[in-house]
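Hi R.,

Here are the chain sequences for the assembly we discussed:
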Amino acid sequence: KAGVTQTPRYLIKTRGQQVTLSCSPISGHRSVSWYQQTPGQGLQFLFEYFSETQRNKGNFPGRFSGRQFSNSRSEMNVSTLELGDSALYLCASSLNAGTDEQYFGPGTRLTVT
Amino acid sequence: DQQVKQNSPSLSVQEGRISILNCDYTNSMFDYFLWYKKYPAEGPTFLISISSIKDKNEDGRFTVFLNKSAKHLSLHIVPSQPGDSAVYFCAASVPSGTYKYIFGTGTRLKVLA
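And here is the predicted structure of the full complex:
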């Protein structure tokens, strides 16, 4: 069974631009969560989607948004990029919302210059 | 405000000895705890979990202990192997239907051969 895939793996953007990251969950998984990982901050929860609906949202500004499609694939968008947005963005899928075990993708490394 | 804390950013242990990774939390409402392991350039992988109704869970070489009164959990790896060298994250689950996961900042374990 294929794992969680994220595209692109690496991305370089400049301040003020916007970016869209993509995540394809494990086949059959309906829940997708997004996390931001920065040095010293660990993994910080961005949001969770289940059945195309946002179930939960972390403490991030409105510049961070996401959506989920009917095939459970999810996208995350960051508008008006700031230098502090440079991070590893991880997507995790699970069978259902609230399921204990999440399977993570390899992440997208975003660098904002 | 870091609700889940891993105060040791790094730990070195000799092969064959015990590795003990610690995690403290502040929210007494957390009811489920997980440990993830992360290798470079890969997403975190689920290792072991424990419910707040238990104080110990064992899976092979990995044991997680939970001390609710102290709001402390630990991961024991016995015996430690060089392949265990990775960053370990503890995470806590928030109940009441939201099921978002709050991660610690991680501990880098290095097992010396």
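Chain B touches chain A at residues 4, 6, 32, 34, 36, 41-46, 49, 89, 91, 93, 97-106 (CB under 8 Å). The mean pLDDT of chain B is 92.

Let me know if anything looks off.

Best,
T.
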